[in-house]
Amino acid sequence: MNLERITDPLDERISGYRDLTDVALRSRIEPETGVFIAESAAVIERALAAGHRPVSVLMEDKWLERMGPILRSARDIPIFVGDRAVLEEITGFHVHRGALALMGRPQMPTVRSVIAGARRILVLEDIVDHTNVGAIIRSAAALGFDGFLVTPRCADPLYRRSVRVSMGTVFDLPWTRLSSWPGDLALLREAGFTIAAVTPGSDAIPLDEFDPPERLALILGTEGDGLTTQALTEADISLVIPMQRGVDSLNVAAAAAVMCWALRPSGEWG
What we know:
seven-stranded parallel beta sheet; 10 helices; Alpha/beta knot; 31% helix; elongated; five-stranded mixed beta sheet; 2 domains; 19% strand; alpha/beta; CATH 3.30.1330.30
C-alpha cells in the first residue's frame, strides 16, 4: 500500500479531512468539490463494492491489518496514517471506527433513470437531520424499496453521518436530488406512480385500510412541521399510521420504517 505518515495536523495532503464536525461547512464544500467522506471499515468496504473510488484514506496504524484486504483494489491511492491525537486534531473527533476515506462523489442521475422500473419510491421533503436521512435510507433498502428522491433543501444523503447511519446502503439504492419542487412530482405521475403524502391529517387514509397500487411514491416531511402545504396539495392521497394513547405522530425515521414495511412490494418476501 502507498503509506504516508502524517505528523502535522496542518499538512495540506489531508486538507479534505479537516473540520468534519462542522456540518454547515462540510455540507457546502463536499458537493462543491465533488467528494464525500465514508466512515468505518464496513462503510468503506460497501462503497468500494458499489464501485465508488477513494481519493485517499486516513487511519490509525492499528487499523492497517483490518483495512489491508479492503484496499488492495485501490493500491495507487495514498493511505495516510497517524496517531490518535493527530487524527483527532485533523477531524475534530475521535476516529474510532477504523478509518475514513475521501471518496469521489458520483454524478447525479436523472429522475427518470431513478424511477425507471421502480415500484416503490420515497421522496424526502426538506428533512434536515442527517441521522434521520440515513435511517430512512437504511429502512428503504432493507424493506425492498427501489430508490429515493430528495428535495433541493433536504440534507445530503452522502454526508458522513447519513452514510454511516445508513450502514452504506445509500450506495445500493438509486437516488437523486430534485431540481424543481414540487414540480418534479409530475415526472412521477407521468411514470404511473400514485403519490401518497404521509401525514397525521384527519382526512388521511389509515395505513391498515390502504390497498397499495403497483407503483407508489411516499412523500415524507421535515422534522417538526411535516409536509408543506404544496406537497399535500400535489399528492394524490394522504396516508396516516393509526396511533394510540394520544400520540399524533412518530419521528420521521420511525414512520418511514413502518411505511416501508407495510407497503413493501409484493412477491419480495417468503
